[in-house]
Specification:
Helix content is 31%, strand content 28%. The protein is an alpha+beta fold. The strands form two sheets. Strands 1, 4, 5, 6, 7, 8 and 9 form a seven-stranded mixed β-sheet that branches. A two-stranded antiparallel ribbon has the order 2-3. The longest helix is centred in the last third of the chain and has 20 residues. It is globular and about 55 Å long.
């Protein structure tokens, strides 16, 4: 039964992750399931910080990103999914700050939806242990951004295609790596990743071959990581 009188607040931080072996394209657009697996590096110091406050006194959901009111259906869908799991009716206020330029190609949506789902899940009073293997939680994170689950873990992380589960291939303390990020332009990228993926899937004569050869890229990357090469 829905809870009529509820107030809960939680804050979460998730690091930007940069793909070393990238996924591109969906095998299920509605469920936002990646066509292939992927391996990424989660960056410390470049992240998204999000606070979610559920409050029965609120009339509507509100999303504020970098001090600006935003209307993002994906954000509100995450809140709806979590409300349904928790049996809540309370609306939510979301306050989020990106540590990198938004929608510029630096994976702010991945860190953003990881931090959003983490904070909303906790604020709704849902259990927070072993979330990296909690299928319902991972489904919600992924629907916001296909690469967002990778931002839940530090170091070098693999997101498995078939199971949707995460695996740490190298922890932040196992291998001291650095990534240089240079900002060369200002403003948002002209084509979103989601639109770019669909365009590639629809028009590239190389796409199906790339998908079929992708598992070999993952094998090579795992071996290189294991050898610290």
């Amino acid at each position: 039964m829905p809870v009529d009188d509820f107030a809960g607040t939680a804050t979460a931080r998730a690091g930007v992750n940069i793909a070393l072996v990238k996924y591109w394209g969906k095998r299920d657009v509605a469920a936002n399931l990646p066509a292939v697996g992927s391996i990424s590096m989660t960056l410390d110091g470049l992240d998204t910080r999000t606070t979610v406050r559920f409050d029965s006194g609120l009339d509507t959901d509100r999303f504020i990103l970098d001090r600006e009111d935003r209307q993002d259906p994906r954000v509100f869908a995450v809140l709806d999914d979590i409300r349904a799991l928790a049996g809540l009716e309370a609306r939510a206020e979301v306050l989020s700050t990106n540590g990198v330029p938004t929608a510029s190609g630096l994976a702010s949506s991945a860190s953003g939806f990881a931090a959003l789902t983490l904070s909303a899940w906790a604020a709704a009073g849902l259990p927070t242990h072993n979330l990296e293997s909690e299928d319902r939680f991972l489904d919600i994170v992924r629907r916001g951004s296909g690469s967002a689950p990778r931002s839940l873990l530090g170091g070098l992380v693999e997101l498995h295609r078939d199971s949707g589960h995460l695996e740490t291939l190298s922890s932040p303390t196992d291998w001291s790596l650095r990534m240089v990020v240079c900002r060369l332009t200002r403003g948002q990228k002209k084509v979103s990743s989601r639109d770019g993926m669909q365009h590639t899937t629809d028009t590239s004569t190389y796409y199906s071959t790339w998908v079929s050869e992708h598992p070999a890229d993952l094998v090579a990357a795992r071996a290189a990581i294991s050898a610290k090469d």
